[in-house]
Automatic annotation (TrEMBL), chain A:
This is Phosphate transport system permease protein PstA. Its main location: membrane. PROSITE patterns: ABC_TM1. Residues 62-280 form the ABC transmembrane type-1 domain. Belongs to the binding-protein-dependent transport system permease family. CysTW subfamily. One of its GO terms (molecular function) is phosphate transmembrane transporter activity. The lineage of its organism: Bacteria, Bacillati, Bacillota, Bacilli, Lactobacillales.
TrEMBL record, chain B:
This is Phosphate transporter ATP-binding protein. GO terms for molecular function: ATP binding; ATP hydrolysis activity; phosphate transmembrane transporter activity. GO terms for biological process: phosphate ion transmembrane transport. Keywords: ATP-binding, Cell membrane, Membrane, Nucleotide-binding, Phosphate transport, Translocase, Transport. It comes from Levilactobacillus acidifarinae DSM 19394 = JCM 15949. InterPro entries: AAA+_ATPase (IPR003593), ABC_transporter-like_ATP-bd (IPR003439), ABC_transporter-like_CS (IPR017871), P-loop_NTPase (IPR027417), PstB-like (IPR005670). CDD domains: ABC_PstB_phosphate_transporter. NCBIfam families: 3a0107s01c2.
Length: 294, 274
């Protein structure tokens, strides 16, 4: 067999593999959307769930998912940013750095159910935070931190070392160089990473079942005082998210339209994550264009 | 490992020939004494004692790996994190190679321009102005004035004066390099170190850059590393020839190019090596 034929076969096989991956994705997403979309309506998206009757929605769960996501990001982003800056811009290549890196790798490979159970024992029980948004946000931070740190580190890595030298040569300190030269240039890529990790956090269920809880008490959307128990903003209330809701309906849902609600919720979840991914690409490209071209 | 017998046939030419500048009109502003640079255990610079004359251009020439860039980067301590630099670097009577020197202030006096243009991902205006703002220059008219003077000195003003708020990343290579020079001189340095600033530029941009440097030497002491021997001959007053981590010959540029004393220098400047 000559090398030209070999090459053609190799290309064919590779195309085939890539095609299979795309087909699996399309089939999955297609099935979820086809079976779930008919259920999705404004009513479905805004009304609270019902435990025994038909016609419940996912309004509270949807709100919980976003609120939890924002809280988790507020906690994990500064830590991840600091860790990434330390690791990439400051740390020397020694055993301390390598211990930190190994810790991050291990943390990122922990099964999320383990993170959830740890969160239950530590935040919910030990720290007496109870099943609450705060416990969930901390658990999600554990889950999110390693991935986000990695992604910010990768973003810093894409900025040429010549930029760092340029800053230092002007008499800027290392800190000024990082904050005034490197971070602004890395913003598009950091933002992309943040949104992509938001997508993962949004769909996370296992880490939340034991921390944020599986109940969604009725909320009064007129009450924005975070200290009131029925306020949507209260971080100490239990909060079932959309992903947890899907899991719960399928394992113990007793409402008559459980299957339809599960399908509808799945479709909403998938669409939200798709939107996160598309937004990441779009915003990243747009920002990069604004920064680089005139 | 190279032996002294490799560089000179005994009895014919000297092994080293160092003539420090002694022009009273251009006193020494920067000098190195007993400079040794190590990368880990590997010694990159063995001997590099040079004096640099004020408001003159000094060229550092030599083959790749001869240590000229390492030497240059040691002068404003850009090598601090990668190499160990021993010896003294005297700048206006102060040894700046000491731990307690304010490195950031020192680098404002001894600026640097790199081989590849490295404009920041900011507007042309901010590339120059932002380091000044960090140093407390905030008055708009003052900033405008410094931006304009710096761009004029770097011979870029006429081309960019109408698009100062455009991204600097859209500039051509030659323009970007001149912006980097403008950025470096905006913080009012005393000495300007240039590490092969023209090697990524086309001949036209190179010649414009050389004109700019010739004008800039009225205000600054310039030390330039170059691979281009014609360039060294065209613009510099003094030339140092580096070979395998040592300065083998240092003299006025005309001496180095017309009457080199060391055989290796002679071979190198006449293109007769190997």
């Amino acid at each position: 067999m000559n090398s030209k034929v070999q090459n053609k076969i190799a290309i064919g096989v590779l195309y085939g593999i890539a095609g299979v991956v795309v087909l699996i994705l399309l089939a999955l997403v297609g099935y979820i959307l086809v079976s779930g979309l008919p259920k999705v309506s404004w009513h479905f998206l805004t009304t609270p769930a019902k435990a025994f009757l038909k016609g419940g929605g996912i309004g509270v769960q949807l709100f919980n998912s976003f609120y939890l996501l924002i809280l988790a990001m507020l906690i994990s982003f500064p830590i991840a940013l600091g860790a990434a800056i330390y690791l990439y811009e400051y740390a020397k290549d020694n055993w301390v750095t390598s211990v930190v890196r190994t810790a991050i790798e291990i943390l990122s490979s922990l099964p999320s159910v383990v993170v959830g159970l740890f969160g239950f024992l530590f935040f919910v029980v030990k720290l007496r935070l109870g099943f609450s948004i705060l416990s969930g946000a901390f658990a999600l931070t554990f889950f999110n931190l390693p991935l986000l740190t990695r992604s910010i580190e990768d973003s810093l890595h894409t900025i040429d070392d010549k930029q760092r030298e340029g800053g230092l040569a002007l008499g800027l300190s290392r800190w000024e160089t990082v904050t005034r030269v490197i971070l602004p240039a890395a913003v598009p890529s950091i933002l992309t990473g943040v949104i992509l990790s938001a997508g993962r956090v949004f769909g996370e269920a296992a880490a939340l079942i034991y921390t944020a809880g599986q109940s969604a008490p009725a909320l009064n959307f007129m009450d924005w005082n975070p200290f009131n128990i029925s306020s949507p903003l209260n971080p100490m209330r239990p909060a079932e998210t959309l992903a947890v809701h899907i899991w719960k309906i399928n394992s113990e849902g007793i409402m008559p339209d459980a299957k339809a609600i599960s399908s509808g919720s799945s479709a909403v979840l998938v669409i939200a994550i798709l939107l996160f991914n598309l937004a990441a690409r779009y915003l990243g490209k747009r920002l990069y264009k604004r920064l680089t071209s005139a | 490992m190279f032996m002294s017998s490799d560089i000179a046939k005994p009895g014919t030419t000297p092994e080293r020939h160092i003539v420090q500048p002694t022009d009273a009109q251009h006193p020494t502003v920067l000098s190195t004494e007993g400079l040794h640079v190590f990368y880990g255990d590997k010694e990159a610079i063995y001997e590099g004692d040079l004096k640099f004359a004020r408001n003159q251009i000094t060229a550092l020439i030599g083959a790749s790996g001869s240590g000229k860039s390492t030497f240059l980067r040691s002068l404003n301590r850009m090598n601090d994190r990668i190499a160990t630099v021993k010896g003294r670097i005297m700048y206006r009577g102060v040894d700046i190679n000491q731990p307690d020197i304010d490195v950031y202030e020192m680098r404002r006096r001894i600026g640097m321009v790199f081989q590849r243009p490295n404009p920041f991902a900011k507007s042309i205006y901010d590339n120059i102005a932002f380091a000044l703002r960090l140093r407390g220059v905030t008055a708009k008219n003052k900033l405008d004035e410094i931006v304009e003077t710096s761009l004029r000195q770097a011979a870029l003003w006429d081309q960019v004066k109408d698009e100062l708020d455009k991204s600097a990343l859209a500039l051509s290579g030659g323009q970007a390099q001149r912006l980097c020079i403008a950025r470096a001189i905006a913080v009012k340095p005393d000495v300007l170190l240039l590490d092969e600033p023209a090697s990524a530029l086309d001949p036209v941009s190179t010649s414009q850059l050389e004109d700019t440097l010739l004008k800039l030497k009225q205000h600054y002491t310039i030390i330039i590393v170059t691979h281009n021997m014609q360039q060294a001959a065209r613009i510099s007053e003094y030339t140092a020839f580096f070979n395998q981590g040592r300065v083998l010959e240092y003299d006025t540029t005309s001496q180095i190019f017309t009457n080199p004393q060391v055989q290796v220098t002679s071979d190198y400047v006449s293109g007769n090596f190997g």
